[in-house]
Specification:
The chain has 232 residues and is mainly alpha-helical. The protein contains eleven helices and no strands. This is Protein C10.
Length: 232
C-alpha cells in the first residue's frame, strides 16, 4: 500500500486545505480519531490501510527523537569519564555502543506500545483480556490455592493476604506487562494500574473488565469468599 491519488481531478485550494487542517486540529483536540482518520485519508487521497505505515513511522520518529534527547542529557553527564578512558577500553566501548543501540531500540518499541494507552481504551481492553486468561489458567489457580493454604496454617491479617495476592498477580502478569511495553516489575505494574484508574473514569468497558478481573482473582482464594460474604 502506498499513498496514491483516487480520482480527484485537482489538488485542494488553500481555503480547502485550511479547513481540513482546522478539522484535523478539532478531531485531535476532541480525541475523535475516526474524524482524524477520515480527514487524513481524504487529504492524502489514500485508503485507511495506507495510513498504517505512515503513522507507525511517525510514532517511531517521535519516540526516536525523545530517546535521542534523553541520551544527550546522559552523555553530557559522562563526558569527563569518556575523555579519561584508557586505550585498551576501546573495544569494550564498541561493544557497549552496540548494547546501547539495542537497548535504545527496545526502549523505542516499548514506548511505542505504551503510547497506545493514551489514545483510547483498546490497548487496555486487550491487555485486561490477556490478564484474564492468566488468572483463569490452571497454573494460577493452583498457585492461589497454595497461597490460600498457607493462610490457613497460621493467622494472617487482611494486609498480608492482599500483599500475597498482589505478589502472585504480578508474578503471572509479568509476561503480559512486558508484551505491552511495561517493565515486568512493581514499577511497570504500578504504571499500568495508574493508567487503568484514569481510563476507568471515561471507559465503562475498561472499568467493567478491571472489576471482573478482580473478582476472578479473588475467586481463586477460598478463604476470601467467607470474608466477602461477611462484608456484605
Amino acid at each position: 500500500g502506498h499513498l496514491r491519488g483516487q480520482g480527484r481531478s485537482s489538488g485542494a485550494h488553500p481555503p480547502e486545505m485550511a479547513a481540513s487542517w482546522e478539522m484535523l486540529r478539532l478531531a485531535v483536540s476532541e480525541k475523535d480519531y475516526s474524524m482524524a482518520t477520515s480527514t487524513l485519508c481524504q487529504e492524502l487521497e489514500c485508503g485507511q490501510a495506507d495510513l498504517v505505515p505512515l503513522l507507525s513511522g511517525m510514532l517511531a520518529e517521535v519516540i526516536r527523537k525523545e530517546e535521542a534527547t534523553k541520551a544527550k542529557r546522559v552523555q553530557k553527564g559522562s563526558a569527563f569519564s569518556r575523555f579519561n578512558k584508557a586505550p585498551n577500553q576501546a573495544e569494550d566501548s564498541k561493544d557497549s555502543a552496540k548494547d546501547q543501540a539495542a537497548e535504545a531500540a527496545r526502549r523505542c518499541w516499548k514506548s511505542g506500545l505504551r503510547s497506545l494507552f493514551t489514545s483510547g481504551a483498546e490497548a487496555a481492553v486487550s491487555m485486561l483480556a490477556d490478564l484474564a486468561q492468566e488468572y483463569s489458567s490452571q497454573e494460577f489457580i493452583r498457585a492461589a490455592r497454595e497461597v490460600n493454604d498457607g493462610w490457613s496454617a497460621a493467622p494472617t491479617n487482611t494486609f498480608k493476604k492482599m500483599t500475597d495476592i498482589n505478589s502472585l498477580c504480578l508474578q503471572v502478569g509479568k509476561p503480559v506487562l512486558e508484551r505491552y511495553g511495561f517493565s515486568p516489575d512493581e514499577r511497570g505494574d504500578k504504571e499500568f494500574r495508574l493508567i487503568l484508574r484514569d481510563l476507568s473514569k471515561t471507559s465503562k468497558e475498561v472499568k467493567e473488565m478491571n472489576d471482573r478481573n478482580r473478582r476472578l482473582v479473588f475467586s481463586a482464594f477460598p478463604d476470601l469468599q467467607g470474608e466477602n460474604q461477611d462484608d456484605d
